[in-house]
Amino acid sequence: MTHGMRSDTQTPHLDGGGRNWRDTATRYALLPLRVFLGVTFIYAGLDKLTDSTFLSASGSGSVGDLMRNVRDSSAIPALVDLALKSPVGFGYAIAFGELAVGIGTLLGLLARLAALGGALISLSLWLTVSWASDPYYYGNDLAYLMAWLPLVLAGASVFSVDAALRARRGQRSGDLSY
Questions:
Q1: φ, ψ dihedrals at 108, nearest 5°
Q2: Torsion sign across C-alpha atoms 60, 62, 67, 68
Q3: Exposed/middle/buried for 105, CB within 10 Å: 0-12, 13-18, 19+?
Q4: What is the residue-wise DSSP string for 5-67?
Q5: In terms of Cα–Cα distance, which of 163, 165, 146, 147 is closest to 155?
Q6: Closest Cα partner for 155 from 175, 139, 178, 133?
Q7: Mean pLDDT calculated for residue range 80-107
Q8: For 157-166, what is each residue's pLDDT tens digit?
Q9: Are 163 and 157 a contacting pair, CB within 8 Å?
Q10: Average pLDDT over residues 95-120
Q11: pLDDT per position as a tens digit, 28-48
Q12: Residues 125, 141: contact at Cβ < 8 Å?
């Protein structure tokens, strides 16, 4: 009995004109999220790297001042204390991390790893900077964390370096089920 089993050997990605609009929509569903998160994180990283006020240990608008202000209201004060040991270094780490995550996500290069990095950055910012937001949904870092999770699970299936590399490996091995 083959109930529930596909009897064809081609994947929906290769079946030519036989795709309906739902198959196409499903295939491209995460692309807008990937573009949004990629562009947003690239912008956030560049914004931090070009803001000399942010990349300072103290002063209004500095990462050091921000960390000192959120220390007592964060979920994990020890994480803030770690950042305060070198606030400028932490600022650069966040900025370059956001930039790497954004580029990887936008290009679809090591997309799951990039999305995991984005989720971890968002998680750390939620537990420190936006933890005290009341009600909780006013803090955008939690929403970003939730937005990263589908990309962690699914990766970048279309318009990505990862998909191109998978297709190339499949062509070399003669496997058409990639």
A1: 70, 35
A2: negative
A3: buried
A4: -----S-TTTSGGG--HHHHHHHHTTHHHHHHHHHHHHHHHHHHHT-TTTTSSSSTT-HHHHH
A5: 163
A6: 178
A7: 96
A8: 899 999 999 8
A9: yes
A10: 98
A11: 999 999 999 999 999 999 999
A12: yes
